[in-house]
Every structure is written in structure tokens, then in C-alpha cells.
Amino acid sequence: PLDSTNYATWCSDIKVVLLERDCWDIVAEREAAPVVKEGDEIDARKLKEFNLRFNRAYTTIYRNASPQYRTIIEGITNGAEAWKKLKSLFQPDSKARVMALKHEFFSTGIEPDESIGLYASKLPA
């Protein structure tokens, strides 16, 4: 589950799950609910299938977050909104965040007997 240390890998893992469940385009906001045009009849099956995937997107994100982060998104039922809310929490797009990450990167040194893999895992995502 998502915790305070694994946002980058969690994102990748959940994206794969959402792709497998045919929900990623909904979360990425590339797919919207079928629209009923005046005079047209919408296919009830298509709408039901979309609503199922729409709900599945949110529940997948919710169920794969640790309890402390579930509270942040529990009032939301839209997977795309939940995704954006978590992203804004873990990846704020500010100059201060960029400067803090640069500082953390340059202050993280490799130990003499440390493998490159272990060193890389200590770097901020």
C-alpha cells in the first residue's frame, strides 16, 4: 500500500493495475462518460460498463493506500480526483520542493562498500 516512502513505485504499480482493469484512461482523464445527445439513445450497456470501470478506478486507488492516506481521499468517489489529490500531496510542483530535492540529492553520499542499487534506493523519487 501507499505510504510516506513509496509514492513513486506505488504510482507505477497502481498504473499497471489500472491498465489491466481498463481504468487508466479514466484516471488520466482521456476517457469520459458516454454523452447522451438530444434525440439519441445511449446504449445502457456502455453506460453501465463505464460506471463500473469509473468506480473500479477509485476503489483500486483507495484500497491500495495505507489507512492514513485513505482519509485524504475517502470523501472523493472519482479516481482521477483521488489520483490528483495524492499527487499534489507527494509531488508538489513548487520551486521550494525542487530546491529541497536538489539539496537532498547532493547531501546523500554513497558509502565506500555500498552497492549502487542501495545508494539509488536512498535517493528521493
3D structure, described in words:
The chain is mostly helical and 125 residues long. It has two domains: 6-91, no CATH class; 93-124, no CATH class. Helices cover 62% and strands 0% of the residues. It has seven helices and no strands. The protein has helices spanning 7-20, 24-27, 44-63, 67-73, 79-90, 95-107, 116-122. The protein is elongated. The model has no long low-confidence stretch (mean pLDDT 88).
Secondary structure elements and their pairing?
Elements: H1 7-20, H2 24-27, H3 44-63, H4 67-73, H5 79-90, H6 95-107, H7 116-122
Helix pairs in contact: 3-5
Key features of this structure:
single chain, 125 residues, mainly alpha, 2 domains, 7 helices
